[in-house]
């Protein structure tokens, strides 16, 4: 971050989510297009590393969604103690642990694919990820059911609190209008979080359900679409934040202005002309 006012726990969580989304956009989507082109020309080692990075990015993204839900839960349900309970130090530790877990968990779940990549290849030029039923079931539970259960439970509590606040606002008199206005951001935050979680479930649920069929999924005609749908979630996240979170748009403006200001300061007046050093 280039501005001190952007140094907040929530923005740190969004930074972690942005890193995983960036990996999806810069590495996974081009790799997936190459993998689906019919011939993988980069070798078995690069194939194994590509599949590993893919799972790390997706796993980190899921954990980030859990952490963001917890952050919004505290902000909406216990705003008076938010600054004491959610600190930069705690969030930094949480983000570090989420990535460490993603690297370790992916190494364990893809152990055979990493150690023996030739076993998953049925012909030359192929890059395939093969799971047996047990590994697929474990991955669905640890990588999807457990975190999604936490996300849904947290958001259910947030929804109940938001509805109770809305009910209380309807019975307030005009004299308490300032209190009503003060609570509106909490309701908007709850609604925005619900949209984000809904899109997340829509993108991830089909793939996780079909992955239980194990190796058969890889030969299914819908396999490419399901993987693409998972990656689409990473493309949608920035749009959701830009549409529903005013503070996110403000942060983008601050960063843009900071970059422009830095570039302007690099302009030097030489021999009567301005020369801008990029």
Automatic annotation (TrEMBL):
A Pfam family it matches: 7tm_1
Domain G-protein coupled receptors family 1 profile: 1-241
Main location, first listed in the record: membrane
Cellular component aspect of the GO annotation: plasma membrane
Domain of life from the UniProt record: Eukaryota
Stored InterPro entries: GPCR_Rhodpsn, GPCR_Rhodpsn_7TM, TAAR
Chain ranges passing through the membrane: 12-29, 49-70, 91-110, 140-163, 193-213, 225-248
Alphabetical list of Gene3D superfamilies matching this protein: Rhodopsin 7-helix transmembrane proteins
Location in the cell: Cell membrane
A molecular function (GO) term: trace-amine receptor activity
UniProt keyword list: Cell membrane, G-protein coupled receptor, Membrane, Receptor, Transducer, Transmembrane, Transmembrane helix
Membrane topology category: Multi-pass membrane protein
Keyword check for Repressor: no
Family: Belongs to the G-protein coupled receptor 1 family.
Protein name: G-protein coupled receptors family 1 profile domain-containing protein
């Amino acid at each position: 971050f280039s501005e001190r006012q952007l140094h907040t726990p929530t923005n740190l969580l969004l930074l972690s989510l942005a890193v995983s989304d960036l990996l999806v956009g810069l590495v996974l989507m081009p790799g997936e297009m190459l993998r689906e082109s019919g011939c993988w020309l980069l070798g078995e080692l690069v194939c194994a590393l590509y599949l590993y990075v893919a799972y790390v990015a997706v796993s980190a993204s899921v954990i980030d969604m859990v952490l963001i839900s917890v952050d919004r839960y505290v902000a909406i349900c216990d705003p008076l103690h938010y600054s004491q309970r959610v600190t930069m130090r705690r969030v930094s530790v949480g983000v570090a642990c989420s990535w460490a877990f993603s690297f370790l968990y992916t190494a364990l779940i893809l152990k055979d694919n990493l150690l023996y990549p030739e076993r998953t290849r049925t012909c030359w030029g192929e890059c395939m990820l093969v799971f047996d039923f047990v590994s697929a079931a474990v991955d669905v539970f640890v990588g999807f059911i457990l975190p999604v259960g936490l996300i849904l439970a947290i958001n259910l509590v947030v929804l109940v609190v938001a509805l109770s606040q809305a009910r209380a606002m309807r019975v307030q008199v005009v004299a308490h209008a300032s209190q009503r206005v003060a609570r509106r951001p909490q309701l908007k935050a709850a609604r925005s979080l619900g949209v984000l979680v809904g899109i997340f479930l829509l993108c991830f649920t089909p793939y996780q359900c079909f992955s239980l069929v194990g190796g058969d999924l890889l030969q299914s005609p819908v396999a490419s679409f399901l993987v693409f749908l998972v990656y689409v979630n990473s493309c949608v996240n920035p749009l959701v934040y830009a549409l529903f979170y005013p503070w996110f748009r403000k942060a983008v403006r601050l960063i843009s202005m900071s970059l422009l200001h830095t570039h302007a300061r690099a302009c030097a007046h030489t021999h009567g002309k301005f020369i801008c050093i990029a």
